[in-house]
């Protein structure tokens, strides 16, 4: 645990002091502020959808590739990954520290949106269902964790951060496009295969959080899929030791 805490602290500091983090935070605040202003001025609805829909769908696809592209690819390019893997720390600790560091940064970005919640509360005299905000924010963290773990996995294959970001973005965009398509891809036939395909789509499980429902199936989906990509990343690092 001491190794994991030290590595996570190192990763978090490296994220916060990088110019990329400042640019990402600026883009995040601009996009969510602009859309919030437009939606709230038009609808005057005080609910979690006003704040994070559609950003719950768009932000993970946009930000996860940017935040994860350097986590392992930069280490490979600079030759520091081999030094890190030969240090007295496990591969799992290396992967978890990088994931937890970038997750903490993403959570801090989401924390800044408390300003928008305050604006909604100030401009509205009626009762507010705070439970929907809790589940909505939890859903945002879970789906961000899934895309961040996928981006970390992709980053393990490249030495060029731009290629890692592009690959991760294409993967996320494909999932997002498939979710909003009018029908599943032609290769997916109606019946059991279509049900399995729908279950595997992450945004299908995210919708329940926006509606204020906390389904253990949706929660388990995000936990297991995120853990799966972290496991695959660990296996990729382990395979490098045998080369």
Explain this structure to me?
- The protein has one domain.
- Helices cover 78% and strands 0% of the residues.
- It has 13 helices and no strands.
- It has helices at residues 2-16, 19-43, 48-52, 55-68, 73-78, 80-85, 91-111, 114-122, 130-155, 161-180, 192-200, 202-210, 216-240.
- Helix 2 (19-43) runs antiparallel to helix 4 and helix 12 crosses helix 13 (216-240).
- The longest helix has 26 residues, at 130-155.
- The mean pLDDT is 77.
Order of H and E elements: HHHHHHHHHHHHH
Q: Are there runs of 5+ residues with pLDDT below 50, and where?
A: none
Distance between the termini: 28 Å
Structural class: mainly alpha
Total of DSSP H or I helical runs spanning 4+ residues:
13
Number of strand segments: 0
Task: Let me know the largest β-sheet.
Answer: none
Features:
mainly alpha, 243 residues, globular, 0% strand
Quick summary of this structure?
By secondary structure, the protein is mainly α.
Which helices and strands, and how do they pair?
Elements: H1 2-16, H2 19-43, H3 48-52, H4 55-68, H5 73-78, H6 80-85, H7 91-111, H8 114-122, H9 130-155, H10 161-180, H11 192-200, H12 202-210, H13 216-240
Helix pairs in contact: 1-7, 2-4, 4-9, 4-10, 7-9, 7-13, 9-10, 9-12, 9-13, 12-13
């Amino acid at each position: 645990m001491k190794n994991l805490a030290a590595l996570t602290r190192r990763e978090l500091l490296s994220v916060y002091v990088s110019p990329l983090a400042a640019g990402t935070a600026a883009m995040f605040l601009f996009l969510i502020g602009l859309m919030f202003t437009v939606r709230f001025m038009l609808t005057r609805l005080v609910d979690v959808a006003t704040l994070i829909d559609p950003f719950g769908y768009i932000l993970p696809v946009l930000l996860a590739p940017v935040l994860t592209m350097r986590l392992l690819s930069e280490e490979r390019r600079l030759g520091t990954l081999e030094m890190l893997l030969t240090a007295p720390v496990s591969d799992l600790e290396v992967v978890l520290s990088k994931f937890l560091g970038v997750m903490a940064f993403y959570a801090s970005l989401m924390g800044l949106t408390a300003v928008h919640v305050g604006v909604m509360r100030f401009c509205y005299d009626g009762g507010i269902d705070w439970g929907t905000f809790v589940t909505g924010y939890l859903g945002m963290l879970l789906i961000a964790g899934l895309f961040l773990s996928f981006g970390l996995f992709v980053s393990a294959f490249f030495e060029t951060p731009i290629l890692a970001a592009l690959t991760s973005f294409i993967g996320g965009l494909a999932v997002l496009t498939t979710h909003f398509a009018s029908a599943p891809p032609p290769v997916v036939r109606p019946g059991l295969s279509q049900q399995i395909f729908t279950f595997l789509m992450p945004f299908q499980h995210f919708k329940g959080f926006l509606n204020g429902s906390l389904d253990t199936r949706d929660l388990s989906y995000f936990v297991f899929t995120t853990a799966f990509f972290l496991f695959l990343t660990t296996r990729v690092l382990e395979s490098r030791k045998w080369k």
